[in-house]
Every structure is written in C-alpha cells, then in structure tokens.
C-alpha cells in the first residue's frame, strides 16, 4: 500500500483531506481510485489505513478505517553528523541512512569538507527534507528523521550529552561492538555518530573531539568511503543494540 506523511491537521475525526501535493501524487501520478486504500502517517507516531472516497484534481479525501501505533522506529535515537560533500553523495547518505534507521541528520562543515559555504547549504534544506520524507515513506518509518541546521565542526564537538562516537580510521583498538557493549540501557536511548569527509578529519579536529568526550571508534582495518561508513555505522549501531 502507498504511504504518505501528511500534516496532522489534514486529519479530522475519521476523515482525511489530502494536502495538494499528496493529492496530486494520488490523482495524477499513481492514478489511484475511490475505494482503494492508502496508509497515512501523521509524523506523531500513528499509521492510518484510509479508504479513498474522492479522487480528483480539486479534492482528494478518504475515510479512516484503521489506526495502528508507531511502526518501523528504532528505540534508540541516532543522531548522524555528516560532513558535507558533493550533492549526490550527501543526498544518497540521507536516503540510505533514513532506511537504516537514523533519527536526525546534522550537516557539518569541517576543515576538509568539500562544501564550505553555509548559504549554499541552507538553500538545499527543503530538497533534503523531501528526500528524507520520501525515503521514510518508502521504507515504512512512522516518524520522519529530522534535518537539523548545519554546524561547524567546532560547534559539533561541544554538543550533546548522549553517547558520542567519532568514526576515525586511525583508531585501531575500539570497535563499535566494544564501544556499545559497555553502555547501560538508559544511555543506549540516544547515540551520536560523526562521519568525516573524503579527506578525513584533521589531527586538530580529532584532538578537539576527543578532548570534549567523543569516543574514537574503528569500522575495521579497511578505509571506507564516507558514504559507506555512514550507512555501515548506522546499521551496525542499531544491530548491536538489537534494533
Ligand atoms: N582520510 C582518509 C579517509 C577518510 S574516509 C584517507 O583518505 O585515508 C571518510 C570518513 O569515513 C572518515 O573520516 C571516517 O569518519 C569514516 N571511516 C572510513 N573508514 C573508516 C574506518 N575503517 N574506521 C572508522 N571510520 C572510518
């Protein structure tokens, strides 16, 4: 069944009035008909099965026939700090890491990130949010991962009280398994992962992160491309936590 996130105020009593963009998708792109059912997500943790009653270019609406609680969400809130890179690669990471289970994305400007211009990044936010939403719809998430504002690495290293992990190819001892197996269940509820750009982190950046309490972790003896590291690390953290 097709799945759509819509604003919660599009749902009134047991009726759904689809917003224009979703209505266009249902009517013109997917060519669905009255009587067919879709899944509607309110991004508050509910999944509604909705039978379409009206499908037209003016109004598309339906009746709620079932409500399910939250599905497809990991218990651990995983914040993914991704250094900025070429557009296609960055967008690929947003899509794939939504599928593997990240809960929020924070674009990062570091000394070697391929993108250094903040204004350029801010222009992309709407497009990136759309990519994340479509991936969340496609893979069966109940909540859309949040895209947070871009930060400089110096701000990132100071941030957060969760378990913070910097993926660093020059760390030769601590694996993700080791870093995570020591955690107590309360601490496992929020984990932050920081992935470096193609050129890696500078030694000063790694030093600053470690001084601020980030734990250096290895993904093994082979150096992965940043986009591979992002997907693998996200999947392995949730695997290690049994999610
Ligand atoms: N500068 C390095 C490669 C950077 S790879 C070089 O060219 O030698 C890009 C990012 O992926 C790194 O900053 C790191 O965050 C992550 N990464 C890649 N391989 C890794 C590994 N084996 N262990 C931990 N992190 C890794």
Q: How does this structure look, described?
A:
Strands 7, 8, 9, 10, 11, 12 and 13 form a seven-stranded parallel β-sheet that branches. Helix 2 (87-100) packs parallel to helix 3 (118-139) and helix 2 (87-100) runs parallel beside helix 7 (226-240). The mean pLDDT is 94. The protein has seven helices and 13 strands. 34% of the residues lie in helices and 26% in strands. Strand 5 (47-55) and strand 6 (60-68) form a beta hairpin. The two termini are 24 Å apart. The longest helix is centred in the middle third of the chain and has 22 residues, at 118-139. The structure holds S-adenosyl-L-homocysteine. Residues 167-169, 195-196, 198-201, 218-220, 222-224, 226, 229 line the site of S-adenosyl-L-homocysteine.
What's the helix and strand layout?
Elements: E1 3-5, E2 11-12, E3 15-17, H1 20-29, E4 37-41, E5 47-55, E6 60-68, E7 77-83, H2 87-100, E8 104-109, H3 118-139, E9 146-147, E10 151-152, H4 153-158, E11 163-167, H5 176-181, E12 190-195, H6 203-211, E13 215-217, H7 226-240
Helix pairs in contact: 2-3, 2-7
The chain binds S-adenosyl-L-homocysteine.
Residues 167-169, 195-196, 198-201, 218-220, 222-224, 226, 229 line the site of S-adenosyl-L-homocysteine.
């Amino acid at each position: 069944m097709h799945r759509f996130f819509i604003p919660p105020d599009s749902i009134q009593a047991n009726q759904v009035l689809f917003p224009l963009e979703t209505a266009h998708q249902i009517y013109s792109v997917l060519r669905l008909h009255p009587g067919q059912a879709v899944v509607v997500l309110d991004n508050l943790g509910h999944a509604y099965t909705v039978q379409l009653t009206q499908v037209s270019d003016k109004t598309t609406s339906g009746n709620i026939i079932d409500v399910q609680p939250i599905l497809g969400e990991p218990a651990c809130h995983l914040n993914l700090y991704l250094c900025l890179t070429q557009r296609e690669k960055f967008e690929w990471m947003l899509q794939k890491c939504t599928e593997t289970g990240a809960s929020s994305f924070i674009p990062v400007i570091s000394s070697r990130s391929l993108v250094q211009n903040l204004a350029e990044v801010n222009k992309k936010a709407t497009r990136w949010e759309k990519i994340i939403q479509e991936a969340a719809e496609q893979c069966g998430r109940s909540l859309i991962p949040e895209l947070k504002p871009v930060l400089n690495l110096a701000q990132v290293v100071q941030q957060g009280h969760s378990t913070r992990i910097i993926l660093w190819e020059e760390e030769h001892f601590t694996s993700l398994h080791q870093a995570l197996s020591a955690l107590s269940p309360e601490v496992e509820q929020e984990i932050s992962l920081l992935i470096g750009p193609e050129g890696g982190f500078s030694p000063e950046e790694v030093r600053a992160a470690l001084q601020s309490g980030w734990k250096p972790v290895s993904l093994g003896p082979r150096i992965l491309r940043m986009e591979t590291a992002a997907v693998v690390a996200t999947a392995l953290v949730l695997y290690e936590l049994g999610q």
